[in-house]
Amino acid sequence: HQPIQLYLNNQTDTELTEKLSKRLIAGTYSLKAFYAGEHRSAFDPVEKSIQLQAGDRVNLPFAFQPRMHSLNLSANVPDYTLHILDQETGKTSVYSDSGQIPPLYAGAYTIRVVKPGYRIVEQELNLVDKDLSLEFSLMELDKIYRNRVRGWKVSKYISATTLIISLGATAYFGYNSLQNYDNYQKATTSSAAADYRSKAIDSRNIAYPAMGIDVLGGSWMLYSYLKQRQWQKKLQNEMGRP
């Protein structure tokens, strides 16, 4: 027997796992039954109305028809497996081909497309009122990891170049500031002293920000190097080759 939740005159009565026998006084009754088993959201309620006379004995069967939908999945690579998690029951079914997927109850599912050496693709979907066809694109882990290694390697070189330029600017303008300050102290006229002092300040105002760029450039170069090593290690672990 199908388990049901029964409403009698809009009042909840009981949840059944077998048959329900109930004595009622004569009168008119409205009954609304909901499927109470797994995938209950896929079943529409069944409504009935009865009129009872004294001594009547009525047998009311309730037949529930689930809403079922087909799911057609494909991917850009062969030999993948499909993992379909039923979010209502928590059960996962695994298929090696989309054609093996039976009609599914209306409801929420999580689809995972799995193939060794490729990044797993996962998608949540709701089968509500229509069939679905989905195409997944899988990317090789080798390609993903190599792109990451290459990207951080480029980042390392860019930050190294920036660091070299900023170090040069720091050294040049720092030295220039010191030279002008030294000339300022040795100046014999007030106009020359003012000119050297102004040049020393201008050079210092460039040298100090350049020192900040030195720190940032060096830090980012080190970070890029560590990230490159991290992805290189992942590449070696996952793919078994450098």
How would you describe this structure to a colleague?
There is one protein chain. The protein has 242 residues and is of the alpha+beta class. Helix 1 (141-186) runs antiparallel to helix 2. The strands form 4 sheets. The chain has a 4-stranded antiparallel beta sheet with strand order 2-1-3-4, with no helix packed on it. It has 2 helices and 12 strands; from the N terminus they run ββββββββββββαα. The model has no long low-confidence stretch (mean pLDDT 84). Helix content is 40%, strand content 27%.
Radius of gyration: 38 Å
Number of helices: 2
The major beta sheet can be summarized as: 4 strands, antiparallel
**How many strands in all?**
12
What is the helical fraction, as a range of percent? 25-40%
| H/E series | EEEEEEEEEEEEHH
Strand order of the largest sheet: 2-1-3-4
Alpha carbon gap, first and last residue: 61 Å
Low-confidence blocks of residues: none
Return the average pLDDT rounded to an integer: 84
- What form results from the Cα inertia axes? elongated
Q: Approximately what portion of the residues adopt beta-strand conformation?
A: 25-35%
* Count of domain modules: 3
Structural class: alpha+beta
